[in-house]
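Question thread 4412

I'm putting together a teaching handout and wanted feedback from people who do this every day. The idea is simple: show students a protein as raw sequence, then show them the structure tokens that encode its fold, then repeat with a second protein so they can compare. Below is the first pair exactly as I plan to print it.
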Amino acid sequence: MAGKKTSRAWMREHVSDPFVKLATRQGLRSRAVFKLEEINARDKLISAGMCVVDLGAAPGGWSQLAAPLVGAGGKVVALDILNMEAIPNVDFIRGDFSEDAVLKRLEQALDGRAVDLVLSDMAPNMSGVRSTDQARWAHLSELAVEFARTHLNPGGTLLVKCFQGAGADDLRREIGALFDSVVVRKPKASRDRSREFFLLAKGLTDEARQRAQPGETV
């Protein structure tokens, strides 16, 4: 009974959410697009000609925003374990990012092109057990950071979703050792009660990029 009440409460909140309504009116894939839109307007992440990787992309809101911004000379590669309907000028890969075979497909889709921006909106399936969910999130975030370290151009940018709790401070310190700057962003479209926030890291250092393991290529 409690689970049904929680589900009904979430649905009421969702359908009354102004960002959900706005996304529907504008024909956008999800309310999440407004999170990236706000951060991009403030921090100028995406520009024409860039190569962008969108991790945890489904249903495609972030790729939907990024594709026209990078333009014909740019590239957007999106990945998710869930299916995603096609978006013009976006290469989509369906698979589990933690699997080596899926990562290899992602690298092939890049076709030797170095990445300018890694976006990670990845989040685990929530179990309801906070310690378990936090550990799952930390694992996904570590994977995103490692991918950024080994595939970003020197000077490249990472935007990764985080959750307040165990491991968040450690992740920020880890990212801070790899990039010139790291700041916290909590866009308006992130619900106030949500523990979600984003770490924005700019300027992957030459030293961090050069520490990539032998055999890893951009």
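The second pair follows. I'd like the answer to focus on this one:
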Amino acid sequence: MLRLIPLQTLVVVAYLAIAFTVPRAVDSVVLSFTLPSGAPWTLTAGGLLVAIGLVLLYLEVLKSVRATMASLIDHGLSLMLFSICLVLFIVLPQAGTATFFLILVMSLIDVIAGFTVTLAASRRSVDVGTGF
């Protein structure tokens, strides 16, 4: 049952938990060091959430390769998550940031890629059967 929940939900919940509990914590520095070029590099909590979200987005695309009823439910839930994120982005001041916008875009890509990959996988399985 937990496999049906979109992985992007973890990033959205983590962002909202940080944004509502500690103001401006999303912009706080998590990691900072100097590159060999001499340029300073810092990673904020928001940047870390976006990086984690990208990894989870990749895993979501891998999950969508299956053309099963469970994957269709997962896509529907991903669409609901995108809709919720869009409303939060528009309505809540805590979600009206560049970091949350990138999370919103990743959620949209999850929806589009999920339906596209599942459709392509199901077409491939149908095409294999028509040659006989």
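Top answer:
Good format. For the second protein you could add a caption like this: The mean pLDDT is 88. The beta strands are 29-34, 40-44.
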